[in-house]
Amino acid sequence: MALHVRRDANAEPSVFARVAIEVFGRSPAPDAFPERLPVKEGFLHALSYAEREGIAVVWIDDPLGLFPPERRPVIAMDKRAEDRGRG
User: Fold this and answer.
1) pTM for this entry
2) What is the spatial order of strands in the sheet that 59-61 belongs to?
């Protein structure tokens, strides 16, 4: 799963994200996400989808540094996940 962050001065929003879910170059869920999302919204959607589907890694493809780590929301660990870790 990847979050691609790009800039297009002629689009709204000008910085956008595209979430890609691919298995060997083929998308198993081609309609899961709109083509362009505001970056923060795309990031949160990607994390939520990854958690539901058991995907361990969301790769952020951001070659221009438009969505640096310090601007990314932090998701608190679910209490149930903490409880499962103790059991």
Assistant:
1) 0.73
2) 37-38, 15-20, 2-7, 59-61
